[in-house]
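Example (one chain per record):
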Amino acid sequence: MAAVAPVVSDLVDFLNASPTAFHAVDEAKRRLKAAGFAQLSEREEWAGLEPGRKYFFTRNHSTIVAFAIGAKYVAGNGFHIIGAHTDSPCLKLKPVSKVTKGGYLEVGVQTYGGGLWYTWFDRDLTVAGRVIIREKRDGGVSYTHKLVRVQEPILRIPTLAIHLDRTISSEGLKVNNQNHLVPVLATSIKNEMQKIVGENGPKESSENKNMKHHPLLLQLIAKEANCEPDEICDFELQLCDTQPSAVAGAMKEFIFSGRLDNLCMSFSSLKALIDSTSAEHSLDNESGVRMVALFDHEEVGSDSAQGAGSPAMLDALSRITGSFNSSNSKLLEKAIQRSFLVSADMAHALHPNYMDKHEENHQPKLHGGLVIKHNANQRYATNAVTAFIFREIAERHQLPIQDFVVRNDMACGSTIGPILASGVGIRTVDIGAPQLSMHSIREMCAVDDISHSYEHFKAYFEEFTELDSKVKVDY
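Predicted structure:
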């Protein structure tokens, strides 16, 4: 049995550190700083950018953009970008989450994205996300955000016994998202007893101040945030599976995990950028800018201040270009036409139990390498030129590559690719590693495809400038 590749173990660590988009960005930020990337603020001027240096910035702490400027870069040169997303379908707590019925304390949640919600039943769940905290400092008050994650399982969405639903075997599970997706936190009787006899029960003042959430839940969150419950001003929390990500299968050939879509591509692109710029002279001959952009809110359409539909990408390209030459406003347009975007989002692997769901000549396999996604109706932004460039990099390194087209009688999903291609005007190829169980609470992919993705992305960063100089189209 083959040993697990270091890149695969690294991915598992990344997944286990990233239960939410906020945590994924925090982990990416930690890795970038360790690799010598300097943090920028969008609220400040970027006048001091230098060739050969590496930078990053975050937006809302759920989107992160990192870039390395080639030593030979001049304003107007291109950007070589990999774009992915940090969010995954999940259940998010409602603004008023306090639900009490039938002798239970429950937590009201809302669905985020197109999840396979039936997979969330009978799982050991917890909460994670960010909280806004009021802090007293130097005689005044300030407000900060903290990331929190309750480690132990505190929630569960129980299924109904088959004895009370005899039609489930013949008619299938029918989930009403409003009525049935309500996790149990505790029983009312135990909660009341704890408040009476427990020395650390929720304070009455906290309960009176915030009637929107169960005091018991606020106490658990406050403990993780190292604050008092009444210091919590607001939060963005979601349910998370407590089972860790793992290398699995009889031959240790799979990864079983939540959020592979799309943290797998986020990790692979981030690691490729870091490793392609870590050597002392790795940027000496680079004339472009190598960039990774990991966006929030792809699962719900990308229409937010930190989504791919926002000006975030264009703002970054404009500010970098302008920091090297602010006198020529046409240099950005020139740079965009010299740029290239790899839109990296996980792909649908052929399912052995549902073979008819794939078009006969386009059946991506696990271990088969990255998948180039095509759609004549521009649900994917790939064209012949962009597909060739990405495929050529694979051939140079003997990396496997696959193609995917959805059946004509099925609807096609989409990615950030068409959004950025149309919004920015940048050449784009849509690709992704193949996986099964997409949008389940527990997904799976192949370990070989993690290695293929990382190697392909790293080669793209290192070789695109030279390869693109040989591609003649608009001449």
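Caption: The radius of gyration is 24 Å.
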